[in-house]
Structure formats: C-alpha cells, structure tokens
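Memo to structure team: turn this sequence into structure tokens by end of day. - J.P.
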Amino acid sequence: MLSLRELARAATVVENGGALPADLPEGPGLTIGVTGPPGAGKSSLVDALTAELRRRGKTVGIVAVDPSSRATGGAILGDRIRMQRHHADPGVFIRSMATRGASGGLARTSAALCELFRKAGFDFTFLETVGVGQDEIDVAGHADATLVVLVPGMGDDVQAIKAGIMEVADIFVINKADRPQVESTQREIESMLSLGHEVIPIFRTVAIDGTGVPELADALESRRKREHTFKPQTCTIDHLGIAVRSLEESLPFYAAQLGLEIASQETVEHEKVRVAMLPAGEARIELLEALGPDSTIAKFIEKRGPGLHHVALKVPDLKAAVARLEAAGVRLLGAPQQGAGGHTYVFVHPAAAGGVLWELIQL
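Reply from structure team:
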C-alpha cells in the first residue's frame, strides 16, 4: 500500500489528468457512489459512515466533488469541512475536487481518483457527487453500489426525479428520518419500486447522531463481501498434481497406456521435489516425486499413499484473487512464490475447501 505522502502526490497527478501509478494491484475494496438532491445530507452521511467503518477497523477513501468557485475555479470545500474529525486519521484519506465545468455531478477525473484509492488498498471508497437533479447519473457508471439519499417531505420531488437518479439506486437512504413525513416519503419510494422487479433496500438514517448508520454499514460490508467473493467459474483447471513414489516407475503408464507425452521434467530444489509435466488437452498432469523424507510430497505419501495431491486453478489475476481470499478470511499456506515451470502460485488450506488442497497459479 502507498504511504500517505505517496498517495497524496499520486492523487494530485491523477486529479490533473495524469496516469495511475504502475504496478498497483486490483484491491478488494468497494466503491460506493453517494448522490441525491441538494440538502439531503450526503456529506454528513458519508462522515457518519466513515466513523462507523473506522470503528470496525476498515480503511476509507473519500472523493468529495464540490461545486467550482467562480473566483478561483477550485473546489468550494464544504464537504471537507464537514469531515474534519477524520483529518488526523491515517485510515481515512479525503480529497475534495471541483467539477471544473463537468456535468453529471462529478469531475472529469473523479472515477480515476476512485480507482487509485481502490488500488491503494482502501476497503471502502465513497464517491460523493454535488447536489444533483434528475439526469445527473454518471456516478452509477463508476461505482460498485450507488446510494441515493433523500429526505422526508420531498413529496412531488420524488416523482419529478424518479426517471433519473431514482433508477440508478442500489440502496435508498432516507436521511434526516427524525423529521415529519418520513413515512410518506418511504411510501413514495416503495410505490415507485413496485413498478419494477428488483428489490432495493430502503434505510432510514439520522446522520448527525448516527441513527440507522450501523445498519447501513452492515449492508455495505455484506455487499463488499459479495462483490469480492472468489469465483471459480472465472478460472480454468491448469493441472492435477499427483504424488508418486518414483517418476521412472510411473511415467511408462502415462506414456504407454494413456498416450500422454512428457512435455518437461525439472527439479524444484526449494520444494524438494522432481516434477514431470504431461499435457492432457488444455490442462496438464503434474507428477511429483519427493527428493527426501522431509519433502511435503514424502510426508503426503507416508500419510495417505500415492495419489491426487492437489488441483491447480489458473487465475487471471493472482494478486487480486489473494486479496479477495484474505478479505474473506480464507487461510492460505504461505505467500505466493515461484514454482515449477516458472509460474507464481499459492496454496489454499484444505480446511477452507472441504479437505481439497487447491493451488492458485498465474503463468
């Protein structure tokens, strides 16, 4: 993860249209768009959610889009002023940016800045728009989830904007829910939702005193876990690892009886194993012979006998896969390292996978 100084410098570069730093992996974070009409309390809600998530040990990045100053062209820092209590917290990074004439409720580089925060390792990144109207829905295209924040007493205003930002909501939040007419506002939203098929949750909050904020934070944490659950269907089988007592004794069966050709043989000293690779269609058979009694393969054979040792999946982004698994609390057997064939790999503990040893590799 970048240091705060490095992140601040990179954010300035990105905000001014520069490129993202090279070699930053895809992080397991969630980008949350926060939009709604002026006066809905978006900044106060983001402030309250940030405080709640920090209590849970999560890191938070905030991209707050402010109106541009007519005098300087810079951001009118109303959002940053509301979030001053997080100023000294190293687990929170706030960047206000001016719209600079851009429409849609965002600045031109808002999405790139969110990507930077995500790659920098923040668990949650909030992208807060300026106060928006009916058709300013750009935020939905750049966020994993979009919160539409409304307030009680909007009445006909809900009907007026329902063809715009109301349709991009993943979650509705009725903020300032201690005000009168909260029930009628919720009925208006539910009436609109009844015309569609998707179930969209509605939360009531009072951001200034934290009412309803923990429940909303729970929903965001659940969504983050769903978004970054490891998905095997995006991977392909690379090889089956089979522990054998002797390559010389085993290879004739695979070559003569199954017709599999030996593509390569090598010794992996740090694993204390000899390996023979035999292509089998798009996948491979990997035969593993121990070089000594302290080899993991020798210990496996001593305990279970020769046979299937592991199944290897080829993943498109090993760093991202590891980040997702660690975020979900899945136990890994060490850190990624280089193995036979020069590929990078990591093993998933069998206890996390029904007793099967899975190897994740990236060639």
